[in-house]
User: Which sequence fits this backbone?
């Protein structure tokens, strides 16, 4: 998703800003966004009143996003990282932490814009982790491009402020139109802000998580299972044990980890809607919603 086609000014030296939205919440995707333009357009860019998206009201963010999309002197792109991807990478045997996922997303945007034919000369990035180490990592990956990595870059550099707006509005729209995989179960969309802190501080989000937890399957796929917020829901209850995949076993062996099983615990509380299913008289909605059929006999 982004601007198209390649503008004429892209053959001139260009600058780009990169920022994210949705790094902290327990619900929904994390979105990385970028904004780029000709280096000669930077003075004009400073007059467009872009600001850190967190300081702007929703209406103003959307207005600015529409104006930058209509500006032929600007280009933009996003990477929407699904909550299932975040959970899978952070919970797999060979774990990938959030900082690495963030770095990969940012580098992916640089790669994408370069592949389009844009002549990037400078890139400004809101830091994740140590700024100097991040800058060195980027410069080693993309020699010939100057990188400026800074805390609060979205408040300092207009090009990053614009990227912040791109990321935030894209995430807001993604959540607003999110199609829950578990819609067949009649799940409420009143999930609040999704920003819980260490312990869930948004009452609406907290109530939604409580209502939609499951003793075996955990939470709907909108939820990032890997977040610490989910721990309080997984301390007691059913224990699920499965054998590791062969690929995971091989990776673990290479890393010196010979464990053969993974375990998750979920609360054993049941909702009324599950009473019939768990009694064996009904078919579990998890399977029917995904059109999974029972097979008789053995392979």
Assistant:
């Amino acid at each position: 998703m982004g601007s198209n086609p390649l503008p004429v000014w892209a053959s001139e030296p260009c600058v780009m800003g990169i920022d994210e939205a949705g790094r902290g919440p327990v619900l929904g995707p994390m979105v990385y966004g970028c904004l780029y333009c000709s280096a000669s357009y930077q003075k004009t860019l400073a007059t467009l009143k872009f600001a850190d998206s967190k300081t702007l009201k929703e209406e103003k963010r959307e207005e600015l996003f529409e104006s930058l999309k209509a500006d032929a002197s600007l280009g933009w792109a996003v990477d929407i990282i699904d909550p299932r991807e975040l959970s899978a990478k952070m919970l797999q045997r060979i774990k990938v932490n959030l900082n690495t996922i963030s770095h990969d997303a940012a580098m992916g945007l640089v790669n994408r814009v370069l592949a389009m034919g844009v002549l990037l000369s400078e890139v400004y990035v809101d830091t994740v982790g140590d700024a100097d180490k991040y800058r060195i990592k980027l410069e080693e990956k993309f020699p010939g491009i100057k990188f400026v990595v800074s805390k609060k870059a979205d408040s300092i550099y207009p090009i990053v402020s614009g990227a912040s707006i791109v990321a935030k509005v894209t995430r807001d729209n993604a959540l607003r139109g999110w199609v829950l995989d578990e819609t067949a179960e009649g799940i409420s969309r009143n999930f609040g802000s999704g920003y819980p802190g260490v312990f869930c501080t948004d009452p609406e989000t907290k109530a939604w998580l409580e209502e939609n937890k499951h003793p075996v399957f955990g939470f709907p796929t909108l939820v990032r299972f890997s977040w610490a917020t989910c721990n309080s829901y997984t301390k007691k209850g059913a224990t699920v044990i499965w054998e590791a995949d062969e690929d995971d076993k091989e990776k673990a062996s290479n890393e010196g980890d010979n464990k053969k099983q993974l375990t998750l615990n979920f609360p054993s509380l049941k909702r009324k809607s599950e009473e019939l299913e768990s009694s064996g008289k009904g078919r579990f909605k998890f399977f029917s919603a995904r059109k999974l059929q029972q097979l008789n006999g053995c392979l």
Remarks:
- Strands lie at 14-21, 30-38, 74-81, 120-126, 146-150, 238-243, 261-266.
- Residues 153 and 280 are 56 Å apart (CA to CA).
